């Protein structure tokens, strides 16, 4: 067991849980400081590189929802403290952590802010709400989930205000916004390439008009495929990437910046090589969200084979680990029980969203196995042993 996992196992804020079917051990954040915790959206890691700080989303039901009202808390595993920062109330899934020093960034309705992980750290405004986002209607987001540029001097934004979408980058030192493109159709889930400067991955999404609620689905191309996946280089026109099959959801960049990954609810996790255009299924089990190690050999994903893939927010789910070399699976959570119903779904986005973290040595995810929504962590080494 790594030093990080030893600290987690010894922490008074975590409870050991063993999956009754797979035997995989997880540690669930069960502190009573906040009633509801979640792991970050899977594209944004939240455990610092030294293993000391572990950031989570927090909520106080029934207050707030997936768009606004959640806030941040941090576990300091060196001091075994768990601290909630109510001033970090954020829009959408915008929080971003600097994994070198533990600084948290987030967006609210006034702009972009940051603070350190210690109680004595002060909240600082990084960038105010820019003039081009004022007076155009209701501000729904500044960023779906911020990501850093390769040198960490900038972060992306994909703002939605009224029936208007604006994408670009934010200078995290000077606070300036640089607009790359404006759209009249929903564009979000933007992510800057982790290795190549000024290159962004983003999604076309469904949306409803603010005035009368008229619904617009994701458009389809001439072959009937969802036109969700797009990239854009600063100063150039967006480029569309057709999916292998019909569906494309919940995309992310590979660590080396060469490949786009996305999920298909029926066919699993799929890779697109941006240099050759080749497409291949890499994890064949249908899934909602997936994530891979930096070397792209191992995958984690959330899914619902339990109820015939009948998804709603708060439904049953499974979290799996997949070894691409042996083609074997290990269930981290065989069944996350449903805490909500289709008629009354959860107001928060509580899909497990598993992600590799801390140099791909652990997996973070959101669990419901204790009867409430909680962030959880498990060690990767036992998963490798099960799938060898």
Fold and architecture overview:
- This protein has 388 residues and is mostly beta strands.
- It is built from 2 helices and 31 strands.
- It has helices at residues 3-10, 380-386, and strands at 14-18, 25-29, 36-38, 53-59, 68-76, 81-91, 96-97, 104-108, 111-115, 124-128, 139-141, 154-161, 164-171, 177-183, 187-192, 199-204, 207-208, 215-216, 229-233, 239-240, 249-253, 259-264, 268-273, 279-283, 289-292, 298-303, 317-323, 328-336, 355-357, 362-367, 374-379.
- A 5-stranded antiparallel β-sheet has the order 1-2-31-30-29. The protein has a 4-stranded antiparallel β-sheet with strand order 3-4-5-6, with no helix packed on it. A 4-stranded antiparallel β-sheet has the order 7-8-9-10, with no helix packed on it.
- A hairpin with a 6-residue loop joins strand 30 and strand 31.
- The longest helix is centred in the first third of the chain and has 8 residues, at 3-10.
- The chain is globular and about 50 Å long.
- It starts with a helix and ends with a helix.
- The model has no long low-confidence stretch (mean pLDDT 96).
């Amino acid at each position: 067991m790594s030093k990080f996992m030893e600290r987690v196992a010894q922490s008074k804020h975590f409870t050991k849980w063993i999956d009754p079917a797979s035997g995989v051990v997880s540690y669930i954040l069960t502190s009573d400081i906040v009633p509801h915790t979640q792991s970050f959206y899977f594209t944004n890691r939240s455990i610092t590189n030294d293993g000391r700080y572990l950031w989570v989303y927090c909520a106080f039901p029934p207050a707030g929802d997936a768009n606004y009202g959640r806030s941040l808390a941090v576990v300091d595993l060196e001091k075994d403290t768990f601290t909630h920062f109510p001033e970090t109330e954020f829009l959408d899934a915008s929080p971003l952590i600097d994994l070198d020093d533990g600084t948290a960034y987030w967006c609210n309705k006034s702009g972009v802010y940051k603070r350190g992980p210690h109680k004595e750290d002060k909240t600082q405004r990084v960038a105010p709400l820019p003039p081009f986002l004022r007076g155009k209607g209701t501000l729904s987001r500044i960023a779906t989930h911020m990501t850093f540029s390769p040198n960490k001097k900038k972060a992306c934004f994909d703002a939605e205000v009224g029936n208007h979408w604006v994408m670009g980058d934010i200078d995290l030192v000077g606070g300036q916004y640089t607009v790359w493109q404006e759209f009249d159709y929903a564009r979000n889930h933007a992510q800057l390439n982790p290795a190549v400067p000024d290159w962004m991955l983003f999604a076309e999404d469904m949306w409803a008009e603010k005035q009368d609620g008229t619904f617009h689905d994701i458009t389809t191309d001439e072959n009937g495929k969802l036109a969700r996946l797009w990239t854009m280089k600063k100063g150039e026109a967006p480029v569309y990437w057709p999916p292998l099959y019909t569906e494309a959801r919940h995309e992310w960049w590979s660590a080396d910046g060469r490949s786009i990954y996305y999920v298909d609810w029926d066919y699993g996790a799929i890779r697109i090589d941006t240099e050759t255009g080749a497409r291949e299924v890499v994890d064949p089990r249908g899934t909602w969200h997936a994530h891979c190690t930096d070397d792209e050999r191992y995958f984690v994903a959330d899914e619902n084979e339990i109820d015939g893939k009948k998804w709603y927010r708060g439904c049953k789910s499974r979290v799996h680990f997949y070894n691409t070399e042996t083609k074997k699976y290990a269930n981290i959570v065989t069944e996350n029980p449903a805490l909500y119903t289709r008629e009354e779904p959860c107001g928060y986005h509580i899909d497990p969203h598993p992600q590799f973290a801390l140099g791909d040595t652990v997996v973070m995810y959101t669990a419901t196995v204790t009867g409430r929504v909680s962030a959880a962590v498990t060690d990767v080494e036992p998963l490798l042993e099960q799938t060898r």
